[in-house]
Design a protein that fits this description.
The structure is a homodimer of 653-residue chains.
Chain A lengths: L6 H15 L17 H13 L13 H12 L2 H4 L5 H28 L4 H18 L7 E2 L2 H14 L6 H23 L11 H18 L1 H5 L10 H10 L7 H23 L4 H22 L31 H30 L5 H17 L6 E2 L1 H9 L6 H17 L8 H12 L5 H10 L1 H17 L1 H21 L3 E6 L6 E3 L12 E6 L8 H21 L7 E5 L8 H16 L3 E5 L3 H9 L2 H5 L4 E2 L2 H8 L8
Parallel strand pairs in A: 5-6, 6-7, 7-8
Antiparallel strand pairs in A: 1-2, 3-4, 3-5
Helix pairs in contact in A: 5-6, 5-7, 5-13, 5-16, 5-17, 5-18, 6-15, 6-17, 7-14, 8-14, 8-15, 9-18, 9-20, 9-21, 12-13, 12-18, 14-15, 19-20, 20-21, 22-23
Chain lengths: 653, 653
Amino acid sequence: MSQRVSDEGVRKKMEEIRSGHGDTFSHFHKVESPPKQTLLQEIKHSVVETFFPDKPLNKFKNQTGFRVFVLALQSFFPIFEWGRDYNLKNFRGDFISGLTIASLCIPQDIAYAKLANLDPQYALYTSFVTPLVYAFMGSSRDIAIGPVSVVSLLLGTTLSDEISDIKSHEYLRLAFTATFFAGVTQMALGVLRLGFLIDFLSHAAVVGFMTGSAITIALQQLKGLLGIKNFTKKTDIVSVMRSVFSSAHHGWNWETIVIGLAFLVFLLVAKYIGKKNKKLFWVAAISPMISVIVSTFCVYITRADKKGVAILKHVKKGVNSSSAGEIFFSGKYLGPGIRVGVIAGMVALTEAVAIGRTFAAMKDYPLDGNQEMMAIGAMNIIGSLTSCYVSTGGFSRTAVNNMAGCKTAVSNIVMSMVVLLTLLLITPLFKYTPNAVLASIIIAAVLGLVNIEAIILLWKIDKFDFVACMGALFGVVFINVEIGLLIAVAISFSKILLQVTRPRTAILGKLPGTTVYRNVWQYPKAIQIDGMLIVRVDSAIYFSNSNYIKDRILRWLTDEETQRITSGLSRIEYLTVEMSPVTDIDTSGIHACEELYKSLQKRRVQLILANPGPIVIQKLRASKLTDVIGENNIFPTVADVVSTFGSNGEELL
Amino acid sequence: MSQRVSDEGVRKKMEEIRSGHGDTFSHFHKVESPPKQTLLQEIKHSVVETFFPDKPLNKFKNQTGFRVFVLALQSFFPIFEWGRDYNLKNFRGDFISGLTIASLCIPQDIAYAKLANLDPQYALYTSFVTPLVYAFMGSSRDIAIGPVSVVSLLLGTTLSDEISDIKSHEYLRLAFTATFFAGVTQMALGVLRLGFLIDFLSHAAVVGFMTGSAITIALQQLKGLLGIKNFTKKTDIVSVMRSVFSSAHHGWNWETIVIGLAFLVFLLVAKYIGKKNKKLFWVAAISPMISVIVSTFCVYITRADKKGVAILKHVKKGVNSSSAGEIFFSGKYLGPGIRVGVIAGMVALTEAVAIGRTFAAMKDYPLDGNQEMMAIGAMNIIGSLTSCYVSTGGFSRTAVNNMAGCKTAVSNIVMSMVVLLTLLLITPLFKYTPNAVLASIIIAAVLGLVNIEAIILLWKIDKFDFVACMGALFGVVFINVEIGLLIAVAISFSKILLQVTRPRTAILGKLPGTTVYRNVWQYPKAIQIDGMLIVRVDSAIYFSNSNYIKDRILRWLTDEETQRITSGLSRIEYLTVEMSPVTDIDTSGIHACEELYKSLQKRRVQLILANPGPIVIQKLRASKLTDVIGENNIFPTVADVVSTFGSNGEELL
């Protein structure tokens, strides 16, 4: 059929087919519009899918009075739900895992407090209060709560940019302020059901950011490990390495180095053992505590602190005091407090949600993202009022918690109690703990954040993701944590922008011996139809891409036409746009379609639409564009188009 | 087949089918990976599609030396291309249309200058210089260049926010500065091939912004039309109406009102005639000029200016002087100049590109968006150095240009020459032109920007677009032009965000009597398969939506399972994900797929993928996820899945 079929001819053929004289394919199905929805239904549907995709209100249906109250209480405090089935067997698991993570978290906390430029007791306060709050409100069964290295570093660097005197009372107050606003940010995201916003930090960006932070944190520990006194306040690798080498001659303390390296080796060996034999995970878990005890004892006996080994000196005994009056609600530090709080809150949330999701998927229980945010937000708000700083679910301690056999959030309560006892009884004993051991503990801990395999996988799967990852990594390592984060977000966003601005299109051909049409690039065997070009548009058509799509289709047509005419084939008379993937179209898209139709008319090419979706066909009909193109030229499948307009069998090549 | 098929059984059945014992469908086609591309090819392809979708360098291929120079010259100065075929017949059309738009533009320019708080001659300077530059560099054949109402208003309000003394020399210098940076912005977008950024201002937002601006501009004219002396400087409707009513008793000048209303009626009637009878379009086109001449003469004769009728007073005679030294390149006004320039430049560009595209589509000639931006940028940069302010392609004069039969950009040159003669000879004659007539001219002109039909169409087609449009409109009318613009951009962006965060999914069923699977919501006749759920994902799977998609699929499964079990049907054993619309997947998406697979395994449901696209299958294979899911469970079509795992014929209901 290389001759142009007249409209009359087409209509006749169509009628023939519809009355049953055609072949047995889907001709008797017309493209249908879905049942019409009212405006209110449409809006409701859209709001529900955006903010309530998990249908949280479903369970309240057909319930009344007291029952609704109980259900609401249970959804805000999940402990009232799972607590009813709690039994001794669960408690045994939780008790052991609680003790294990306590022995891990106490030395880690003391070390992390240094990253945030805070006194050690504040991290212990944090590990006492926030896990208690989380146990009541959290929906994860595995997350172990406490200060984490990345957020501690982020706080330490951003807060000291604002107040350089890290020993001042203002610095501490600013830390509480940031913690308060971190909590408010997290809670707000949960309450407003905007939790999906943290999905905008892509997996690749998080991997890069975490790895970069781990490297930066490890480099920072050279100060404690080498016993350097005059260390740079900057965190970028260039400044740090310059600091290290410039102090090589007289700034390093050899006793410190011996202690630090000895325990670092011990910790890494313990870690390796725990990794090799999963049953011995507790070796790795308690190794930091053992290091602290042994090293403290050694220093006390040998009085190595007199020989220049830096020690922790003073850890305040006793339980948290209130810090409600310390938060800046006005004045010049309110602004910086909010800014740092929002950033730290988002980063903390990203880590907690990522780790929570991983373990929820592993054990296959539902994790309510918005509830998690409310729980973490609440615990940070309460924390900021009780001398704690930003706390979240940490990677390493959560993994240990899980391996130690935790069953519920009760393990967090156990850990919290152990920390309380520590605060009340034994903090003075940490006086002689050498800083070098704390540096070793941090280095051993953050090595777990460096995920080389994940980076290699990124390279293999998606080069763009790899670039985003590296951008974040180098940003953190060479500039600072904030810039790294900014780069990660910017690259993620530019990817989204690219996706919505330059969607893909494909030329379709028929798989030999079938009525299936597939991308000719993917299936080189697929055969194009004589006199017809079939283009599939692989995206919703919106204002951001409508002009591109129109131009791209016309370019396909021009390219293909030139090629066919050079090959001596007949000219293209029909352009079929396969619209299956086009889920939506807006007014800009409708205009682009109309312009495409007009341009094709000028070129004497007939526009045909195949399988417009429910929303699209509704809008095409509402805009009367179907009348312009002709309902006759809209088909439910490409196969129908070809059997109507194409010459059955007369395929290209 | 309500019994779970063992892996062994499936494999056997697959082999049977592949060896030809199955039915005659596409089983013998496997899902293919496209030819592997090197990293460099991938990057090149991606860059080309993003920045050079129009392949501007194609024509330079296989050309050498002088020819490349000529082609480059032609692509930067299209006049050297179309100029070669220029003939007398073209010139006749261009001459008449040039005269027509000149007679329209001179009175309009004088009026628009008032909106920008500038003396009238600056608008005339603009209409002399910038059309000349455009004629050499522009690729549109219809656009008529000059100051436009919306940009004039935008400049007037934003600049007077910075410098409230609009009569000061600083104000004028700031206007030139903004014009310079508007030009730089436009040129940069063109040179960097970032023209697609203006697509982010959706059609709906532009309609709303334009309509709102038209209303605001019309309201501003009440000052001139009613002869009010103390008028608010704000542009929001509340302030303006308060100003009008508070001056009702003694602030209105009745002579002014009579003149203003009389000519407004005349202009509107002329406009109506031009609209009713397309051949009489010139009546509308020259009516402003007639109004100016007649009213000026009347005022001069009756000396109505002595009775309180405000007149133009002084229009400077002579041609533009250089303003190169006037631009702020440093100091406190540099920042505001850049800010206003960037905004005005983007708005001006949006108007020019929208109008250019409309007429290019109407006459079916190619319009190079990036070249247009460079042309408009260049003309504004040159303009800023020669006492002009921001200029662009205007809606009304372009329409008149087209109707008057323009053939090429030569009509702009003709107009420019007429304006030059006006500047040299007759500007002093405008002295007695009453401001009221200028107000009438503006009102009559901006009414054309109010497009009620377009707004109704938005409502009909897409409610979200309608909201964006109304947001922009009310923002402009009730607050100010900048806020309106901000609302328009924000709503447009939130739509994109929504699209990439909450893509659609659909349940598929078989159209009776075919092997075609379609959305059961759109085609209620479509029949679901016993023991199987088929879900189509309608978007690329990226970090921004991967979790949502995974959860949504699981929710479909839960909902459907409950429903089927209540109806006494067998449980769902197979979940087929139809991936035709999934054009891409990133590492987050791969993780989500893996988690989906694991969750389904826990529920004893087999995951099956149908028709993964070229990119997707490559990445699935690279990540070894195909090995986890099993290559046996990946099919080229849904029909293949059903004929392998479904019980042929045993359909639901």
